[in-house]
TrEMBL record:
Recorded GO MF terms: aldehyde dehydrogenase (NAD+) activity
The name this protein goes by in its record: Aldehyde dehydrogenase
Record keyword Nucleotide-binding present: no
Record-linked SUPFAM superfamilies: ALDH-like
UniProt gene name: calB
Organism for this UniProt entry: Phenylobacterium zucineum (strain HLK1)
GO biological process terms, semicolon-separated: aldehyde metabolic process
Domain spans labelled Aldehyde dehydrogenase: 20-440
């Protein structure tokens, strides 16, 4: 496919047509919403095919409904977001005489979207909410790990949009590499940190601004006041949704030493309630590919070999070694050490290390000794303890007394920090991320004294002004 040609045509169309009106932006968003509603069953089928076994309800919840929400939010608010924003003048006296300062939000042009395999529909359409609200066109490169879904996306967008508006490019890693080298006006990449380094280098060739939505090891801190039953149910739900193949999945738990066994028991009960069986349970998702299955099982075997206690949460004690698909039971790794691979790499699977701590300072120190994570989760009712955790750690975002939920808040920016990402989107923050904030200053017409004093020949007026500025 001629990616350069498509980009050139989209850029030419952007220059030809100018910034779209609010009505045109809403029309594009409406077309996206209709695509999701009309293709719900096809999306469920495609993702089930790509994963081998994926819950239809989970797909409808995360990839379909979870995409419609951001699009509707953008549609409802974009007129307000598009309004110029008045600012105060400097020095203020100019404003008194009629000078004006404002920010106007202008479409950047063409935005590239590299979406991942774990939620390939949601992580295509959710960024599009901000991209289209800001008035841009888009080129999309979905993942080769979910080929049926990627081809479906290509068909869906092709049925509702011209190639000048939205184009989908499918293919393997070599196509993805070429895509990331295109001279977009902005590029958003969602995926692994190690791949993001290559994307960033490629984008640097054309100085393309980036939004990187990555991952990392998002910790859970169980406070002394945490309700273990509620905490375990919510943590294990987050860890088993999509079989833990979520950038924001809880990656490890820090628990008070005297609550370790209580948490293990509560986790076992919560898994038994959600998944009475695993092997043939359509609610329990498979690992997407064999190499990912082997990687995750390798973490478990490495931890076991190095002395960790491994607890498989299999209610019926099923034998999962003989199965059609790649299902891994929820597995706890108790008291892992830092030399274990499971504590060194993002897990992206239903394996959860649980590590004890003696003091809150110890837990915070452990988190701060690692790369800054995409998410952090605190459970407890102690306000002072909660505030200490919030003030002393620097994750991309936080959910208190649950996991993952901050990503669903359209009024909150979503993004990482450092190795977990850069830039943020969702709601107003997404509109601004994909807009050029153009600064405009309008000078007063009358050439008053203060303006004349700024031009040579310099005299007492400018010297008096400068003396006034040079004071603490």
């Amino acid at each position: 496919m001629d990616m350069q040609g498509i980009l050139a045509r989209q850029k030419a169309a952007h220059l030809r047509d100018g910034a779209p009106t609010a009505e045109e932006r809403i029309n594009r968003i409406d077309r996206c919403i209709r695509l999701l509603i009309e293709n719900r069953t096809a999306i469920e089928d495609a993702l089930n095919q790509d994963f081998g076994s994926r819950s239809r309800e989970a797909t409808a919840f995360t990839d379909v409904s979870g995409s419609i929400g951001p699009l509707k939010h953008a549609k409802a608010h974009l007129r307000k977001w598009m309004r110029p924003e008045k600012r105060k003048t400097t020095p203020a006296i100019l404003g008194l005489f009629g000078a004006k300062a404002e920010v106007r939000y202008q479409p950047k042009g063409v935005v590239g979207v590299i979406s991942p395999w774990n939620f390939p529909v949601n992580l295509t359409f959710a960024p599009l909410a901000g991209i289209l609200a800001a008035g841009n066109r888009a080129m999309i490169k979905p993942s080769e790990y979910t080929p049926a879904t990627s081809e479906l996306l290509k068909t869906m967008f092709g049925s509702a949009f011209s190639e000048e508006e939205i184009a989908v490019i499918t293919g393997g890693p070599e196509v993805g590499e070429a895509f990331s080298r295109l001279a977009f006006d902005h590029l958003i990449f969602t995926g692994a940190t190690n791949i993001a380094r290559h994307v960033m280098r490629a984008a640097a060739e054309n100085l393309v601004p980036l939004t990187l939505e990555l991952g990392g090891k998002s910790p859970v801190i169980l406070g002394q006041s945490a309700d273990l039953g509620v905490a375990a149910a919510r943590i294990m739900n987050g860890k088993t949704l999509n079989a833990g193949q979520i950038c924001l999945a809880p990656d490890y738990v820090l628990a008070p030493a005297d609550k370790m066994e209580g948490f293990v028991d509560a986790a076992r009960k919560s898994v038994s309630k959600m998944f009475p069986t695993i092997k043939d349970n359509p609610d329990y998702t498979s690992i997407v590919a064999q190499r990912h299955y082997e990687r995750i099982m390798g973490y478990v075997e490495d931890a076991r070999a190095k002395g960790a206690r491994v607890v498989e949460l299999k209610p019926e004690n099923e034998d999962l070694t003989q199965q059609e698909h790649r299902k891994i039971a929820p597995t706890l790794i108790l008291e892992p050490t830092d030399d274990m691979k499971v504590m060194q790499e993002e897990i992206f699977g239903p394996v959860l290390p649980v590590k004890s701590y003696r003091s809150l300072d110890e837990a915070i120190g452990y988190v701060n000794g690692k790369d800054r994570p995409l998410g952090l989760y605190y459970f407890g009712d102690d306000a002072a303890e909660r505030e200490k955790v919030l003030a002393s750690t620097t994750p991309g975002g936080v959910t208190v007394n649950d996991v993952i939920f901050h990503v669903a808040q359209e009024e909150l920016p979503f993004g990482g920090i450092g190795p977990s990402g850069m830039g943020s989107y969702h709601g107003l923050d997404g509109f601004r991320e994909f807009s050029h904030r153009k600064a405009i200053f309008t000078q007063i017409k009358k050439d008053i004294g203060p303006l004349q004093a700024m031009r040579p020949p310099y005299g007492p007026a400018i010297r008096k002004y400068l003396d006034g500025q040079m004071k603490a």
